[in-house]
Amino acid sequence: MLNVQRFFSCAAPGRSLASPALAFFVATAGAVVLGGCAASPPPFYAAAMSGSLVNVYGPEASAGAPQAPPQAPAAPTQAPPPSEPFAPRPLPGADGATLQTLARSERTAPLRYRVIVIPGSGCAGMGPIADRYFAGLLHAQVLVLHKPGVDPQARTAPGDCAREFVQQDRLSTWLDHARAALVADARQRARDGAPALPQLLVGISEGAELLPALAPEVPQLAGLVLLSASGLDPQEAGRLQAQRLGAQEDWEELARVVAGSRPDTAVAQGRSLGYWRDLWSWPLTLPLVQSPWPVLQVWGGEDALVPPAAYERFAELAALRTEPYCARSLPDADHGLQRRAAGADGVQQVWAWAEQWARDPAAGLCAPLSR
């Protein structure tokens, strides 16, 4: 259960948006974690990690979460430990900035494919859990991008994000930096004579909102993978979550703040108005429906952060796609794809499907789900 008693202590002066229902929504839908204020944050990273991931990846996977004994993943990897764990690999971002990334070679020969990962919200890095989180990607090289200002090894709780990070964190900025980094990555691979591998572009929760715009920068792109992401425009997914929680009035009040005259740098509910304004106008559904790449979408049947109606609505729209689309809801799994009662890790199941596809790419990205 989230701690939302003081979640809105950063709200605009003179405006009290203290609804616990909307506090829960603002913290989670679209993987939005509030930061940069004194409010007590929810004890998870809303994108790659949820509270239940502590059961699989250790206490560092969830800031502030109680320690629980580790459990085996649902899909055994049947592989030795990686000879080379994840290592830093800085890439140029936009406007001369440097983007911090993590890279890892394949765990076992032969090398068959490459996976590029766009994590979601928050200011903590994936470094502390990367080796375990991506363990099931046996025959793949893996590249994990981090948002500007995020240290890959940081375990910063969402509510402790630096004010500088809060000020610069918005989808348009993240997209510019990620696009520049992927262009640089492709050029470097070409200079190095790296093999032309099929590549998967994976978006975790909020990270999926960047996939259609980043896809053209990935050579030999074989498909888009959405983990715990509805596929709807963020504003539409937010509206559905507000309805789910009975917080429509609070959602409308937030919309009025976003449409107001305060500058983008102003902070409302722990996020800059620039962040909220990007979210309010961000296109995702149409670019995904029209994208020329296969799309694989996986989510938890008990996802408390994205409403079932959002997943259902996108599935209806995705039926119009001319390219393959396949979706799978993991029963009893949460936003982090964890099945706590069964002690099962749905993330490793996704990687198992990727491994099956990589053995026969010509069959298509959706083939393993039909077997």
Protein model, in words:
- This protein has 371 residues and is α/β, with parallel strands linked by helices.
- It has helices at 20-28, 54-57, 130-133, 163-168, 171-192, 211-214, 234-245, 248-258, 273-281, 285-290, 308-318, 346-359; strands spanning 87-88, 91-92, 98-99, 101-104, 113-118, 140-145, 199-204, 221-227, 267-268, 271-272, 295-300, 325-330, 338-339, 344-345.
- It is 30% helix and 15% strand.
- The strands form four sheets. An eight-stranded mixed sheet has the order 1-4-6-5-7-8-11-12, sandwiched between helices.
- α1 (20-28) runs antiparallel to α7.
Condensed summary:
With 371 residues, this protein is of the alpha/beta class. The protein has helices at residues 20-28, 54-57, 130-133, 163-168, 171-192, 211-214, 234-245, 248-258, 273-281, 285-290, 308-318, 346-359, and strands at residues 87-88, 91-92, 98-99, 101-104, 113-118, 140-145, 199-204, 221-227, 267-268, 271-272, 295-300, 325-330, 338-339, 344-345.
